[in-house]
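Example with several molecule types.
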Amino acid sequence: MSASKTTEIRSIEVPALARVEGEGGLYIGVKDGKITEIKVNIYEPPRFFEGFLRGRSLFEVPDITARICGICPVAYQMSSVNALEASQGIAITPSIRALRRLMYHAEWIESHALHIYLLQAPDLLGQESAISLAAVAPEVVTKALRMKKVGNSLLRAIGGRSVHPVSTTVGGFYRWPEKEALQALLPELEWSAAAAVEAVRWAATLPYPDFEVDAEYVAIRRPDEYGMLDGRVVSSSGVDIPVTDYEKHYLEDQVEHCNSLHSHTKEGGSYMVGPLARFNLNHSQLGKTSQSLIKELKVQFPIRNPFKNLFARSFELVDAYEDAIRLIREYNPQGPSRIQFEPHAGEGCGVSEAPRGLLFHKYTVGDGGLIQKARIVPPTSQNFARMEADLWKFAPTVITKPHDEATLACEHLVRSYDPCISCSVHFVRWENKDAA
Amino acid sequence: MPAPCKTTVAVFKFSSCDGCQLQILNMEDELLALATEVEIANFLEARRRVLPGPYDVVLVEGSVSTPHEAELIKQIRGQAKLLIAIGACATAGGIQALRNRADVDEYARAVYPHPEYLHYLPKATPISELVPVDMELYGCPVSRAEVLEAITALLHNRKPNLPQHSVCLECKRKGTVCVMVAKNMLCLGPATRSGCGALCPSCGRGCYGCFGPQPGMDLNTLVPTLRAMETDPRETARLLSHVSGFAPAFAKAAGEIIAEEKKK
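Resulting structure tokens for the full complex:
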């Protein structure tokens, strides 16, 4: 090997990614100035959820699957109950559905505010964390924490606590939350809704890396609202299927270097789920404030820059506050908080949109309501192939920069997806060959 | 540069859901003050900058479930003046310890075409099974108030004031109607350590033991009561085998029921 300039370009190795949920690393192998290998390494341990779900009563499932992820327990509870209710052939009432949507907004609020300000924004503002950001721009972090807090407060009002809430059950809720407790949050939600509008304008000005890539976007869609709680699975390539066909279109593979499964389309392509995918596919269904912001900022669709996941998230935050305010104002629950039924054998699948993307659950239920089989496809395992595909295009554009800068830029790309590694490996750990 | 006298705090994650670390990030009113009072030296979920050890206080989330983790916890112990295990995973094995009673190899074979690629220990265990732990904070998730209280107490060199009573007593204090008596629901509240504020009964359902067994509580009197209310013969055993299912008192009681049922 000559001592030419190219040999100075070193491989990028991030043994442990910061500001992501769970444990993962990043390796970009470089030889003679060319990228030879890209791996998003996942070494988060397996937790065998689908093993120990077997033999549990279906009523225990939402409490157990919530523990897959402390950041998006509501998503796990909602996809679980959707799938289990389908397996039992029961339909929930409009009042139960409205409360579920409100609860889900609360999770989107806390998770999106966390990701925008504490996890991704430091990359765009030249900071290592929100803690260091607070030293130079305390007003940004203070505002962010206030916006995040109301999401957690709302979740506590509905579910008792914000991490692993306890009110959700198959068929509805163990109890209706107090109207007064919800209404007490209106002033903070209104303040946050206004702050979120400013956040969108601020997010529009951030110095995203100049990078565009073609990707297939996948999200759930409903005719009457921005897809979140349930709906059909749609994609930018024209897929429009009921959730029962999800497994025919999206498959999972083992990838040796990664402890999580990787999803791909049935044609073998990668695809993206999450805020940017949803925003690109369903932006016309966001509320009126978002629509006027889209016009004001002259947003062109599709947005092809994955770093702009933060921008999409900021719009979803506006909408979450706005719709949460509406739902609280209209909150007047009718009928029982849960549908009673006698558990029986059946099979069902369900989807919902976790803050970081589409979350699929499928259960086979035996006699007496005991789980025989469970399958869960989390958003992050669907995004892994997309992250690596992006890195193959993005890394060559930064690899000649100073090593630390190049490393940070590649880390930032992974972080923009808000990967939830704890979720992605709840089943499996594929041993890293290099480490073995 | 940080002031040299500041207490250094590190947070590490083992097998877990991230929820206990998130409880720290969920201290919206206290987080910035905390970051001023102590030096957050190593907390990967929150910051990219990592200061080298040793650390004055190390908070550990998660249970030990892989050979790599078993090594790592020993290294971390060596870097920690004071090690605090936070949450049900770190103190009792957590939800993933539900596999401890099962044939985990069978789980792997049933699901994966290449189970030989999977690396895991036969059991997911609490931190204290591998290294000495100085303090345990329970819960699934851990209580934010308890984490703050523990850190504040350490900074002021006093004993932390943590709940010492059961969920059942908490219900009485709050005036929550007993779900066992009034609704015939199975509830672990009489035998579970408080810390949640008796959330489940106040939501109209029975406690499932997030904060683990209340020391000194007699499960021998509670279990027969619960079993008399069962709609199926494994219900009490399943209730005990939840997020704190590997905590010795709960594991023993559940094991006895399962053995008894097998005999039938």
